[in-house]
Structure formats: C-alpha cells, structure tokens
Amino acid sequence: MTATTEPILEVDGLVKHYPLTQGILFKKQIGAVKAVDGVDFTLYKGETLGIVGESGCGKSTVAKMLCHLERPTAGVIRFKGEDITRLSGRALKAVRRNIQMVFQDPYTSLNPRMTVGDIVGEPYEIHPEVAPKGDRRRRVQELLDVVGLNPEYISRYPHQFSGGQRQRIGIARGLALRPEVIVADEPVSALDVSVQAQVINLLDRLQSEFDLSYVFIAHDLSIVRHISDRVGVMYLGRIVETGRDAEIYDHPTHPYTQALLSAVPVPDPEARDHRERIILTGDVPSPTDIPSGCRFRTRCWKAQERCVREVPALAVPDVFRAVSGPAAHDSACHFAEERQVVPAEGEHGNGPG
Ligand SMILES: Nc1ncnc2c1ncn2[C@@H]1O[C@H](COP(=O)(O)OP(=O)(O)OP(=O)(O)O)[C@@H](O)[C@H]1O
Ligand SMILES: [Mg+2]
Fold first, then answer.
1. Which residue intervals define the domain ABC transporter in the entry (predicted)?
2. 57 lines ligand 1 (CB under 6 A)
3. Are 296 and 260 part of one and the same domain?
4. For the chain, which terminal residue's Cβ has fewer other Cβ atoms within 10 angstroms, N or C?
5. pTM value surpassing 0.85
C-alpha cells in the first residue's frame, strides 16, 4: 500500500510528565521528568512515519502512549478520527487490537520460558474473538511463515534463535491481531548491521501485504531513511522538525536536524565536501529542567534573545506556508531556513494567506 492523505493516528499536544519525588516513607514531589512535553504529529494511512532523536528524548514514551502502555499526562490521541486517549474497558480493548507495538530488544522482550507458538499466539488469549482455540496453531504457523520463519519451529524456545529471527518472532506476534498500525520502537537497533536490512525489508513487505501504517522509531536518521515516507525529529520531549523524508534529508531547516544530519556519513565524496560538519556544544539539558523559550537554544548557534522568551511553534511561518497535510514541512525554529515546499503531484496546497 502506498501513503495516503487520510489520517489514521493524530497526536495533539501529547505530554507525559513523571513525578520526581524525594523521601522514601513520605514521598514529596520535587519536580517532574518531562519525558514528552507537547508532541504533535499525524500518521497517514499506509505510510511510515520515522521518529528520530537522541537517547532520552522521549521516543519510547511516545510509543508507549500510542499503544496505551502509558497514560498521557495531557494531550489527545485520535485513531481514525475518534479520541482514544482515555478509553477504558471494552472500547479500549478494541482499539488496542488495532495499534500494536514491536519492541527494541528481541533478547529481552520475549519470555524465555515460553515457546514461539505461545509467544506469537499470546495475543489470542486476550482477544479470543480473533482466533478460536482450535484454529490458533494453524494461525501461528501461518504468521511464522509470513515473517520468514519455518512454521515447524513453533515448539522451539527464543534462545534457539538468532537476534534477527527473534525480531521476526516479535513482528509475528505484533501481526497476530491484524492491527492497522504498528509502532516499532527501534526494531533493528539491537541487531547486527547485516541483519538490520533484512528486518527492514521484511517490515516493508508486510506493510503492503497487510495494509499497515507504521510509526518507526530510531536513533539514527540513516536507518529511518530507508523505510520512512516522512520523518519527525525529536529533541527533549518535542518534535522540532517534520516533513517528507527527502525534504528533511536534503533541506533540513531546523538547526538540530542540520546538526544530526551533519553527523550521518555521506557516501558521495563530492556531497561530503560541500557539507559542513556541525559539532554541537554542551550536553542535552535534563528533562527535569527544560530551558525556557526554545528548548534547543542552549546548544544552538543561531540562538538570540527571542529564543529565550518565545517557544517556537512547529510550523512554517504563514507567509511561507505552501502546503498542509502529508506534504507540509514544519520546523519549530524562529530562524528556520524558510523554504517553500513544492506540493507533489495530485496534492493541493492551501496557498499563502
Ligand atoms: N517510568 C519512568 N519514570 C521516570 N522517568 C522516566 C520513566 N520512563 C522514562 N523516563 C525518562 O523519560 C525520558 C525519556 O525516556 P524515553 O525512554 O522515552 O527516551 P528514548 O528517546 O526512548 O531514549 P532511548 O533512545 O535511550 O531509548 C528519559 O529522561 C527517561 O529517563
Ligand atoms: Mg527508547
């Protein structure tokens, strides 16, 4: 399936603050870890949205909230237009079926005492309506086949598999309930480079085979490049730039994205010579103590007085806004390199004003 302009997941002002407490007996809240601090994005049906950012910027916390493994402190998550943020009971169960997660570490996310058959078929225990008991073994074998594993391995244990095969088991499990959205949290980060491409190719194939939409989380821009239609760059609990994959790679407008990209190796020597290597100074500030105004300003070479006072919105200044929807290229910087995005064929821009 190819990307559409029909939103499947919409995230609006998503926040997760973990209370920071002191004392053991009488816990006193002394602050908050602002793990996710106002995230907005839309996932369109059939597309892959890559989310990248350094360790600790809140990627996994976003993933967990999308899959209802964490409750948001604030904000709204919509699935096909319906607010699913605070569902409970049956309605929650129905939605959860549709949004499944694939985890980062295939070595620790699979229960070592369960057989592959039990692991992949476990979701049917929670959703027996999807597969009657007598039909589960056949379904699990089919899933193993779909992800490129021998269906006869159904009785084996996770330790009998390689890292790449284990991640295939995790993916088969994620597919068991036939979800519409898969949130993959660094699904290849723990794998050898040679195996990463195989798993990415598998995810790519499954996307068209099962009409899936992906949120694909990674540390590294070079990994998401292969699979993403669009990319969102996260910094300290927020998305600071988002746009089509080629826009982000070829014309990054946010200084943080420019810095991240300058660290990605470029195979073409000529392109390499033309690119400046940006070395960021200073550490990432603590999520318990986020800078005022623009959160990136303490490490930014463009920062000015305005950046201390004013939080930049994730948008293109109105006069430059050419398009909305999947083709929009937004940047949360007061001094973003303003660039008019050319709409792709078949897409209509809002036009300025
Ligand atoms: N349960 C929790 N309680 C308190 N703080 C937490 C909790 N979970 C995450 N955090 C903090 O929230 C911030 C974001 O964590 P998160 O795991 O979402 O980051 P990440 O981008 O996935 O990082 P990584 O790339 O290392 O996986 C970190 O500072 C982390 O320490
Ligand atoms: Mg993580």
1. 9-261
2. yes
3. yes
4. C
5. yes
